[in-house]
User: Which sequence fits this backbone?
């Protein structure tokens, strides 16, 4: 069983890191609970693979600690960590049969052959690999190969966490959802911690209970897919999650709220005070295209904007419009009237988020 | 890869065909022509049919030379293949030491065959050669011009020295082509060093080893210049290889008929062994 | 650590005979034939000076280099399109053609020595650089086709198709896009072509007399009336290793990547 704790963990590939930019992983504290299904989501180069390799033990972190159930494992090699890992490209032992592939980790641990037999068959059943057991692993399809490499982790009784490094990259699109459901099923059946690295938000959202979004070497938000969507805590999360991403526009503060050109967005005194304490010019307001209210007619509450483009995406439309000097997007429902050259929009107050220095700011103790 | 049917591709192959045919077909025809005739001089020749072939196949001296040739090829393969794989595994993977190793290991490959013979001839001499002198000083009786066993051992050592680098280089690049994830997965699966070699490295080396073994078989079966320079075929005819027999017969004694018949037999043996070897490996790979 | 030692022992095994040749090339004949010394006591360049100032010696190197370069150019020029055809298309007799080509690599040069001599004499190629280069094509061209075919097969066919859609003609696609893609392959092929042509002796010696005589054949002259001139022989040997060192140096980066001949 494993609860994985990262304590003041950081990693740099440089020998003498100087600035933040030298770190692939910036100092972070994080806990992966036992038995959870997690996703590690982020663009390529954000450090998610580095973090995964630190967890699996292929890489030793340069700073901080990694704990498995409270025990420091920084320098333990992967073979002593009770983890299994599924790689981006299927790793199978070409010359062996599927059965031998699944039995390989057990044979390396000198498990008696009759136990291997029953364990391999059990796992093969779950993964629907039983008809293939006698086949050479080399001739399998990519999704079967990925199942075999996952099976090598499942046969071991001592495995308490499985790490996935973009495991669906080489799988045919129509098979992806099938394999994803299999993963989900295995998660429910075995009491395993699973960490799934991906750059695809849909994969992350369907697989994981909680998603850690990584950006420039740090976890910028850790929460359920729902939280990430409704309440992104960093502009990057807003931009990265959702399609299209969140709209942002830069504002300045005034006595009673935020000023965007000649438009005033009211805000509480308390919030303004908080922002003032941080002391920066980098203030943005953000709203998801889904929450932009588009009115059918001219309206006293609404701003008049120029429509740039309407994109037809089948069941809905995406409207791009010019809001002063910012191009923004709004999502129109199927039955909604499609504006032609002018549109009237408004921003419902509860969906307008305030970002200072790219991080979400909310009124404290409210 | 799925290939498209296109007979125009012949135009791309035509230059190769013309070039190789010029140097291969006409001389081969000449050889076939000689092999069925008895040639006295440029104007006097008789058709003798398969007589030369029968004679050559029944010649005990050539039979034993053929046997020796097979023995030699298999011996050097047995030594060079495992040694080459071993060296490839030992070579550093990156950095300046990797480059240096590559250059040093490939050195023997680019030395002309007779210079290789010369180097070893000098090296093994009891008076001026380091190895011969050292052995003599240690009281080991060693003389390649008198003792057939010494001569054989030296030729094998020379071939190992000269050609193991080829196997090593092929394997080295084969090993470099294995993605890091395989080694990582093996660590997680708690594979031993031997299991990693047996189940990851060796299977990935099969293709380059086929190339290496085929090249080495062909070239060792045709070996000529190196033993010729080192031992001159002696002592006696103990290290006279087939190519040397052939050149002596054709150029030295001008026995064109027998030499030609023998050439064809020689050629066909190499062709047959290479073909059997190649298809056997290819089939075992395709098997499920 | 143990593995380091094993590797160093192997490299010493490789270098020792070469060192001995080098050592000898800087000695006088008196020292060579006197007591055995591990390094030159009377260091001398005389042996090298003799070779580098005597045209009958150094022309051998020039001859060798000319026919080896010629062979490399010819082999690559004809092998590139042919390898492309084998890697991309099915055509009448392709498999037989490929095996026939390879079978020429398997033909012992000794088999062809005499007919070659007769053929090349009758068409006026005897004792010319082109003659030796063409003769070496017999085994080098099949080898080049074989190696290049492996590399080309590993280049996805979609690249060709995209280029044709973008309006490239075949020659332009081949020279501008395809050849740069298989750079490593060409480097490795060049290495092999150089190697087999440079080290070959039997054909090169038989097909030349004076004008195109390779250095290997000239080396046999060191046997004079007064016995073997060991110092000059050693120096000549050392000089035959030098071009090889340059070739390895140039292709060393391709070797790691591409020596597997694209067949892994």
Assistant:
């Amino acid at each position: 069983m494993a609860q994985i704790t990262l304590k003041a963990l950081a990693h740099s590939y440089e020998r003498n890191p100087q600035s933040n930019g030298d770190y692939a992983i910036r100092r972070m504290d994080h806990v992966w609970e036992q038995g959870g299904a997690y996703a590690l989501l982020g663009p390529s180069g954000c450090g998610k693979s580095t973090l995964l390799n630190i967890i699996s033990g292929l890489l030793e972190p340069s700073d901080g600690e990694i704990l498995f159930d409270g025990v420091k494992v920084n320098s333990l090699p992967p073979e002593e960590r009770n983890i299994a890992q599924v790689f981006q490209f299927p790793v199978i032992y070409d010359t062996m049969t599927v059965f031998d592939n699944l039995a390989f980790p057990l044979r390396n641990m000198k498990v008696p052959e009759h136990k291997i037999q029953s364990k391999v068959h059990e796992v093969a059943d779950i993964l629907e690999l039983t008809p293939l057991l006698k086949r050479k692993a080399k001739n399998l399809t990519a999704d079967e190969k990925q199942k075999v490499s996952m099976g090598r982790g499942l046969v071991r009784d001592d495995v308490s966490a499985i790490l996935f490094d973009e495991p669906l990259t080489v799988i045919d699109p129509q098979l992806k959802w099938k394999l994803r459901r299999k993963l989900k099923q295995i998660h429910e059946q075995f009491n395993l911690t699973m960490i799934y690295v991906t750059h695809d938000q849909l994969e992350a959202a369907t697989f994981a209970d909680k998603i850690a979004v990584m950006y420039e070497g740090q976890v910028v938000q850790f929460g359920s897919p729902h939280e990430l969507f409704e309440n992104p805590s960093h502009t990057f999360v807003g931009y990265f999650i959702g399609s299209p991403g969140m709209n942002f526009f830069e504002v300045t503060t005034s006595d009673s709220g935020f000023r965007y050109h000649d438009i005033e967005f009211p805000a509480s005194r308390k919030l303004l005070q908080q922002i003032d304490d941080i002391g920066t010019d980098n203030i943005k307001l953000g709203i998801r295209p889904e929450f932009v209210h588009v009115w059918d007619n001219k309206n006293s509450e609404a701003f008049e904007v120029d429509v740039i483009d309407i994109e037809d995406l089948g069941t809905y439309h995406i409207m791009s419009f010019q809001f002063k000097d910012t191009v923004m997007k709004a999502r129109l429902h199927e039955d909604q009237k499609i504006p032609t050259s002018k549109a009237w929009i408004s921003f419902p107050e509860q969906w307008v988020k305030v970002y200072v220095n790219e991080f979400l700011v909310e009124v404290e103790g409210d | 890869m799925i290939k498209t049917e296109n007979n125009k591709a012949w135009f791309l192959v035509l230059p190769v065909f013309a070039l190789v045919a010029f140097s291969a077909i006409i001389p081969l025809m000449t050889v076939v022509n000689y092999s069925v005739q008895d040639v006295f001089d440029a104007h006097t020749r008789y058709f003798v049919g398969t007589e030369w072939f029968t004679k050559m196949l029944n010649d005990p001296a050539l039979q034993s030379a053929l046997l020796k040739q097979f023995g030699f090829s298999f011996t050097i393969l047995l030594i060079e293949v495992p040694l080459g794989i071993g060296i490839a595994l030992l070579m550093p993977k990156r950095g300046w030491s990797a480059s240096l190793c590559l250059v040093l290991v490939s050195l023997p490959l680019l030395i002309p065959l007779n210079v290789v013979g010369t180097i070893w001839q000098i090296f093994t001499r009891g008076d001026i050669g380091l190895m011969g002198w050292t052995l003599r000083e240690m009281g080991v009786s060693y003389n390649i011009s008198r003792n057939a066993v010494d001569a054989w051992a030296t030729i094998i050592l020379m071939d190992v020295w000269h050609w193991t680098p080829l196997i090593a280089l092929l394997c080295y690049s084969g090993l470099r082509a294995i993605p890091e994830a395989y080694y990582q997965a093996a660590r997680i699966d708690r594979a031993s060093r031997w299991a990693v070699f047996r189940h990851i490295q060796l299977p990935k080396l099969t293709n380059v080893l086929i190339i290496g073994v085929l090249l080495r078989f062909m070239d060792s079966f045709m070996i000529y210049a190196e033993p010729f320079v080192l031992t001159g075929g002696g002592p006696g005819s103990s290290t006279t290889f087939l190519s040397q027999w052939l050149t002596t017969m054709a150029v030295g004694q001008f026995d064109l008929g027998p030499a030609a018949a023998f050439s064809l037999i020689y050629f066909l043996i190499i062709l047959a062994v290479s073909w059997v070897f190649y298809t056997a490996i290819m089939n075992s790979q395709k098997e499920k | 650590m143990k593995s380091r030692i094993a590797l160093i022992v192997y490299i010493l095994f490789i270098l020792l005979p070469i060192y001995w040749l080098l050592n000898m090339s800087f000695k006088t004949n008196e020292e060579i034939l006197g007591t055995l010394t591990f390094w030159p006591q009377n260091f001398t360049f005389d042996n090298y000076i003799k070779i580098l100032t005597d045209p009958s010696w150094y022309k051998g190197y020039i001859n060798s280099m000319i026919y080896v370069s010629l062979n490399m150019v010819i082999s690559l020029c004809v092998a590139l399109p042919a390898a492309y055809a084998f890697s991309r298309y099915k055509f009448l007799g392709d498999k037989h053609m490929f095996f026939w080509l390879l079978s020429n690599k398997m033909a012992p040069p000794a088999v062809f020595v005499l007919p070659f001599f007769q053929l090349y004499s009758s068409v006026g190629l005897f004792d010319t650089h082109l003659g030796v280069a063409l003769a070496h094509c017999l085994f080098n061209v099949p080898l080049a086709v074989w190696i290049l075919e492996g590399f080309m097969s590993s280049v996805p066919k979609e690249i060709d198709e995209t280029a044709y859609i973008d309006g490239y003609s075949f020659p332009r696609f081949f020279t501008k896009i395809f050849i740069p893609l298989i750079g490593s392959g060409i480097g490795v092929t060049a290495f092999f072509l150089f190697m087999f042509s440079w080290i070959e002796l039997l054909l090169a010696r038989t097909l030349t007399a004076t004008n195109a005589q390779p250095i290997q054949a000239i080396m046999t002259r060191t046997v004079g009336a007064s016995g073997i001139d060991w110092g000059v022989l050693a120096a000549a040997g050392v000089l035959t290793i030098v071009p090889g060192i340059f070739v390895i140096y140039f292709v060393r980066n391709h070797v790691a990547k591409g020596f597997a001949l694209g067949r892994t």
Observations:
- Chain B touches chain C through 95 residues (CB under 8 Å).
- The longest helix of chain B spans residues 60-90.
- The first strand of chain B starts at residue 4 and ends at 5.
- Chain B has a mean pLDDT of 84.
